[in-house]
């Protein structure tokens, strides 16, 4: 059974830093691209960042580029999101999500999601 | 940047009725990379449809997707009580941002 378990959320002051983790199990982690998607309270979904299975390619939304860094440790089956220079508008539930692939080809969608971790940026 | 627009914002229907949700893109989207998700309060999104018309594993056949180019549709043939939720369309493209979500359509009980 595929499981994604996020951790590391919490309350942080504006300008502060936080590192989120997503522990994966139930699939060959290194074979799949992974992503972070966030949802501000009462709002819709916003894609944040993605990383290839090897970790060699990373992608970011303009809203977080230069402040957030996505990485992965395939030996530990764990995805990370390092968040620096946090702003009030970064307040959201952060989900990690597995990219859905069929026959080694991406479908451009996310087939498994974690339950999310809440990040609150406030003084 | 491709912008997705969903309509209506809210759809008020009764169980057993048919729901038709629209997703319109500002530029042509590859049908291979258009997906639909369902989200209930306090839960993570659930993949319903990928490739514009393929149902994800375990999704009932009352859910169907169609469309191409800039206009896509999610249809729920007969609403069940558990189908009242928010639905998002999402596209993947080769230019940034890599993934884009629509603002969502809420299907609530009339």
Concise summary:
Chain A has 123 residues and is mostly beta strands. Chain A has no helices and eleven strands.
General description of the model:
The complex is a heterodimer of chains A (123) and B (110). By secondary structure, chain A is mostly beta strands. The model of chain A has no long low-confidence stretch (mean pLDDT 96). In chain A, strands 2, 4, 5, 6, 9, 10 and 11 form a seven-stranded mixed sheet that branches. A four-stranded antiparallel sheet of chain A has the order 1-3-8-7, with no helix packed on it. Helix content of chain A is 0%, strand content 56%. Chain B is mainly beta. Chain B has one domain (4-109): Immunoglobulins (Immunoglobulin-like, Sandwich). Helices cover 0% and strands 55% of the residues of chain B. Chain B contains no helices and ten strands. In chain B, a hairpin with a 6-residue loop joins β4 and β5 (46-50). The radius of gyration of chain B is 13 Å and the shape is globular. The mean pLDDT of chain B is 95. The interface between A and B is medium-sized, with 22 and 29 residues.
Give structural attributes.
heterodimer, A: 123 residues, mainly beta, seven-stranded mixed β-sheet, four-stranded antiparallel β-sheet, 11 strands, 0% helix, B: 110 residues, Immunoglobulin-like, three-stranded antiparallel β-sheet
